[in-house]
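Ticket closed. Logging final result for NAD-dependent epimerase/dehydratase family protein.
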Amino acid sequence: MNKTALVLGATGLVGKALVKQLLVDPRYDAITCVVRRPLPAKLFNDPLHKLNPIVIDFEKLQEYHGYFNVRHVYCCLGTTLKTAGSKEAFRKVDFEYVHIAAQLCRNSQCEGFVWISCVGADAASSNFYLRVKGELENAILRMTQLKHAAAVRPSLLLGKRHESRPMEQVAQYMAPIVGMFMVGPFAKYRPVSAVEVAHKMISLQHF
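Final structure:
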């Protein structure tokens, strides 16, 4: 049985937490990460030599279908409108790349595809970010022959980022206090750590 996982978005907040957990998960023999640029040597501790980083051109993602011959695919790709620079560039990363990854996963008959959406994702939303996330959920979950597709829908992500996000930093500082009041139907809006999200993604795969 294939015991390899493929990770897209390994250098992001959740992606890093996910890869660290996968590298010590005995159910996997190898972790392949497709990335835009070479990984820093000290980014991951890999005592069992499971990590296999591959630099690719995401504009030509379909050409790398061979790397999708794995058991499970984890997609942590995502950006922000500010970083992307435009709605079109944002949609390319958060919709197109993830959708193509799901298609390649389906074509390779992987056992599972898990990706990161967000709480409140809704294709009918007037909010551009939530609308794109909702449209992606609809597109992937309607994809025939894609085995065990599942999305995680976190609220505010807690963790240390490389890039500066002042408003998010303030929100993270207030998160422990605000979270105490988010109970019942509001519990899904509680801030959540990247480590927890990564753990949830792994739990959604079928072993």
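The chain has a mean pLDDT of 89. No further action required.
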